[in-house]
Amino acid sequence: MSLPTHLHYTEEHEWLEERDGTVRVGVTHYASEALGDIVYVQLPEVGEQITAGESCGELESTKSVSDLFAPATGEVVAVNESVVDDPSLVNADPFGDGWLLELRVSENGKLLTAEQYAELTSG
Amino acid sequence: MTDMSNDRIPLAALEHGTPFADRHVGPMPAELARMLDVVGVGSLEELGQHAVPDGIRERDLQMTLPEPATEAEALDELHDLAQRCRPHAEMIGLGYYPTITPPVIRRNVIENPAWYTAYTPYQPEISQGRLEALLNFQTMVADLTGVPVSNSSMLDESTAASEGMTLVRRAGRAKSPRFVVDTDTLPQTISVLRTRAEPLGIEVVMADLSEGVDGLPEGEFFGALLAYPGASGSLRDHEAVIAEIHRRGAMAVVAADLLALTLLRAPGEIGADVVVGTTQRFGVPMGFGGPHAGYMAVRQGLERQLPGRLVGVSVDADGDQAYRLALQTREQHIRREKATSNICTAQVLLAVVASMYAVYHGPEGLRAIAARTHRMAAVLAAQFRHAGIEVVHEDFFDTVVTRVPGRADEVIAAAKRAGINLRRVDADHVGISCDETTSRDRLALVWQAFGLDTADLADVDDLDARTPDALPKALRRTSEYLTHPVFHQHRSETSLLRYLRRLSDSDVALDRSMIPLGSCTMKLNATAEMEPITWPAFAELHPFAPAEDAEGLLQVVSDLEGWLAEITGYDAVSLQPNAGSQGEFAGLLAIRAYHHDRGESEREVCLIPASAHGTNAASAVMAGLRVVVVRCDDSGNIEMDHLRELVEKHRDDLAAIMITYPSTHGVYEDTVQDVCGLVHDAGGQVYVDGANLNALIGLARMGKFGSDVSHLNLHKTFCIPHGGGGPGVGPIGVRGHLSPFLPNHPLQPQAGPETGVGPISAAPWGSASILPISWAYVRMMGSDGLRRATLTAVAAANYVARRLDEYFPVLYTGSGGFVAHECILDLRSITKDSGVSVEDVAKRLCDYGLHAPTMSFPVAGTLMVEPTESENLAELDRFCDAMIAIRAEIDKVAAGQWPADDNPLVHAPHTAASLVGEWDHAYGRQEAAYPMGTSMAKVWPPVRRIDGARGDRNLVCSCPPLSAYEE
Ligand SMILES: Cc1ncc(COP(=O)(O)O)c(C=O)c1O
Predict the structure, then answer these.
(1) Angle at B615 between CA B854 and CA B307, to 5 degrees
(2) Per residue in A21-47, pLDDT tens?
(3) Coiled-coil region(s) at which residues (chain B) (predicted)?
(4) Would the CA dihedral through A85, A89, A94, A97 be positive or negative?
(5) Is residue B162 part of a domain?
């Protein structure tokens, strides 16, 4: 699967999309495959301050739990209620309807380009 | 002299007959010789020398154990011990009541290997029977408690209450460390709560709530535990108290008696967030304390916070309804130190019994039993009042407390002479609890014990007619329960018998095939070991009866403590922990108490290797310790440099290391003594998880090679059956310096040291009634038999490893290329090449009539095989041949002969129904169902592969309504 090139990526397998003044965050296709069938998504609350690199939520499959690491520092301005109701969206459309949250970023974390991320996951 | 040939068998041997060890150990001498040949050693002794590191191996270890008895002799001895037990009519109450186990349930569940030899339903496709029984249990608990989500059992009421406490702390938003406890809570529960609260920094605040809301303490608290009814029997309406608890931002846990709930308003209807208790009086004998199934149920919204196993409904690959374990990510095997609890083995067999009791009696039957119980108590109280003896409480369900100033001891002694045990509340008060077995005649004996003679007494039947119920109006139950058809269809014994058979026929237990689950030790549970546990002399003892009533069983306890100490090299043993997880908790508490006692309370770090079982990390957190993970190297051993670094770093705050030996990788690590030395030098203590003791007995002893404390799993190494996920017994052994810190019990002083850490189970000797199983095993095996079992188990694992290595590489071996008692088969590169996963292989084994090994523990993408000493060569070969045949199937997929999405592996398992009708697969029907030819032993899985994700996304954890069964 080719990686959308207009996105930024993190080593924790998240993607970031710049929108007007905010950033939308989700997990990559690679991550959603590795997790397996996602059955539960726990997201921070709107208005919460999150810190780059720290856990701000969880993704559960039937057999594993993975922390969702904040890809940047900032304030949560929106969360995707649809994935909370239907976690399978993360598997079905990780770069689209399966997005997780939107942030107003105050400080960026370490970001990768699509090319760098592709290299990270090729090994 | 002439006819005395060389092969004369002495009379002593003839008299002994076939040694039990020959029955317990599967391979016969000739078979064993073939196995050793494949392994490449000449004898079991030689295998021991090669496999077990020199440093720890005790040469010619002779354990001081009695000479082995035959089955008949052991049973005779147990009969004698049983004669030294004198169960009375036990009217002590406090959470334990006489009950009648319907014989059809006793014989066809408790005494039936199809139920008691199953393992936890990790392979749901071949566990549908017990999953259905557990779903019935969950439905029963949810209906009666009035909160919707029940788990499938807890270890006992007191630990369930403690888990309730930590659940509401975790789930709530209150910041306060205070937890309020109703003073009318069972005394053992109060003590267990204190033991659990202390290391977590929770402050237990006792509150007398007899006057309602005003009894709640000032200031913040995060939760409260309310008793319904109370330990004193008193019944109070908690509705206003719960509303106030909620108003103050806290949550309410209610400890409720399930039988009482058939008549009383459900806790869920008065606002309870969590409801806990026991199902003992639903047909499970008291057994001097256990085992019984505790329960826990929660309101909507808290289900992800539940500890323990939860059965959920999903569908299989054909769209048919199927059951499985749900929301497993809550549990210790996945979430480790962040898990909701350390509980692993629970009380499945006993939960099945309790659920079947409800199925058999149905709601009307249960209500009638509750009415009998209540009416006996009501008449009992009325008579006291009639005769001028004060009854303390107006409202009660089954328990009456009388005030007899200065006379309690005299009354209790008189009752005992009449064969009845009453409860001594204090010098002035006596408690009497009624139950399913109470009769009018027995009431007459109780009155006599109070010194009342016929002239003082009113006619019982008149009294009955005149006496109203003692249940307050506001608390009468109006809601329905157990409306599901399963609680209405099996009133006749024939019907229940067939229902039980139908369910157990869906499951694979040891009575059908080997269960080679690694880390589980699924060995023989011999019938001679099992028989005594249902003898009334053991089964009908109340755990708080005077110790003299249980003399014979206490002899079993002390023999077993002594033997286990001898076997493990420890100085003292406590049998109180009722599962391995509880042993871990008890052992770590002992370590913590030891450091505190020495003024080193800053020691709070617990090192745990990455390969450890999930319970280890979860237990450490419960014991107030901080988990630091030690890495393992490429050969699966503890990475010594990393350990050195961590020990150095934590020189001042190191409490302990928790290792498993042989390791969870199934290897005898030869660095174990260095590990112990390093940790001791830094002031830490060594905990060796003894779950793998089956690879050590008679060869090495943890208490001698550097460990300070271990738990053993009697439900692995010492033949207590797994019961489909419990019962268990997880005793701990300690070296002398830790023995002052073993568990004790407030109601039985001789159950532990006065300086102990408090009780960690509800009952003084935990699951006492199943201890005769392990007693009989040791008694019949003797020192040589036990050692032979160990070496045979190691031989069997090495045989399987040698036979399968070329097909599925064995991941880890010890220095000589040997494994211990289990081996890990690495499928990761096979999966990468073929797309066939460990799960596919596990499910395919069902088609071959076999149970899968442990999947993905301790290494993801692998299978861990533990054959045990009890499987003979034919069965070991059947397993190996199946695995080899499966490897050939995988190769066909890898080679493209079968499409990746249409082959017998991805579609496994195959039900009989899936073979009829149209068939358009790339493989044939016979390949699907009879891969080894039609003469193979066949077990038909009742369902196809179950969709796990769907069940977790749409959680249903009680019996689905009838409409769900309609097409
Ligand atoms: C290595 C190990 N430690 C601890 C345990 C926990 O024992 P229990 O299930 O009795 O709580 C197990 C059980 O499978 C185990 O394999």
Answers:
(1) 100
(2) 899 999 999 999 989 999 999 999 999
(3) none
(4) negative
(5) yes
Q: Could you tell me if the ipTM is greater than 0.85?
A: yes
Backbone angles phi, psi at B205, to 5 degrees: -110, 115
Is the entire prediction scored with pTM above 0.90? yes
> Mapping DSSP to helix (H, G, I), strand (E, B) and coil, where does residue B302 land?
coil
3 state DSSP class of B670: coil
Beta strands in B405-460 (DSSP E): 420-421, 423-426, 429-433
Within 8 A by CB and 6+ apart from B67, the residues are: B782
pLDDT of residue B917: 86
Chain B residues with CB under 8 Å of a chain A CB are: 304, 328-329, 334-335, 338, 856, 948-949, 952-953
Alpha carbon separation from B591 to B397, B580, B615, B637, B866 (Å, rounded): 42, 17, 17, 25, 31
What phi-psi label fits residue B756: left (phi over 0), alpha (psi between -120 and 50 degrees) or beta? beta
B569's tokens? 């090299």
Write out the residues of chain A at the interface with chain B, using a CB-CB cutoff of 8 A: 36-40, 60-65, 86-88
- CATH code of the domain covering residue B339: 3.40.640.10
Question: Helices (H), strands (E): how many in chain A?
Answer: 4, 9
Q: Could you report the per-residue pLDDT of B459-489, keeping only the tens digit for each?
A: 999 999 999 999 999 999 999 999 999 999 9
Helical axes B640-649 vs B672-681, angle rounded to 10°: 10
Instruction: Decide: B224 and B181 in contact? Cβ < 8 Å.
Output: yes
List chain A residues with CB under 8 Å of B948: 37, 62-63
Residues with CB under 6 A from ligand 1: B 344-345, 519, 579-581, 613, 615, 660, 664, 689, 691, 713, 728, 730
Instruction: Give the mean pLDDT of chain B.
Output: 96
In three-state secondary structure terms, A32 is helix
Q: Which two tokens stand for residue B234?
A: 């008193």
Q: Please tell me the distance from the alpha carbon of residue B387 to that of residue B550, in angstroms, as a whole number.
A: 34
Q: Number of structural domains, chain B?
A: 1
The amino acid at B532: P
Residues B107-121: b if buried by 16+ CB within 10 A, e if exposed: ebbbbbbbbbbbbbb
Q: Which domains does chain A have, with CATH numbers?
A: 8-107 (2.40.50.100)
Closest CA to B617 of B568, B570, B656: B656
Cβ of B329 and A62 within 8 Å?
Answer: yes
Closest residue by Cα to residue B568 from B691, B414, B484: B691
Residue B215: inside a domain: yes
How far apart (Å, rounded) are the C-alpha atoms in residues B603 and B739?
A: 19
Chain-chain contact of A88 with B953 (C-beta, under 8 angstroms): yes
pLDDT for A64 equals: 87
Residue B113 lies in a domain: no
Instruction: Judge contact between B313 and B957, C-beta under 8 A.
Output: yes
Q: Are B279 and B923 in contact (CB under 8 A)?
A: no
Q: Is residue B260 part of a domain?
A: yes
CA-based nearest residue in chain A for residue B948? A62
The residue of A35, A39, A41, A89 whose CB has the most chain B CBs within 10 angstroms, and thus the best one to mutate to test that interface, is: A39
- According to DSSP, the residues that pair with B628 across neighbouring strands are B607
d(CA B790, CA B793): 5
Average pLDDT over every residue of B785-794: 98
Range of the domain at B140: 124-358
Q: What is the dihedral of CA B155, B157, B162, B167, to 10 degrees?
A: 80
β-strands B399-403, B390-391: how paired? antiparallel
Q: What is the pLDDT of residues B104-127, one digit of tens each?
A: 999 999 999 999 999 999 999 999
CA distance B124 to chain A (A): 14
Residue B766 CA, ligand 1 centroid: distance in Å: 17
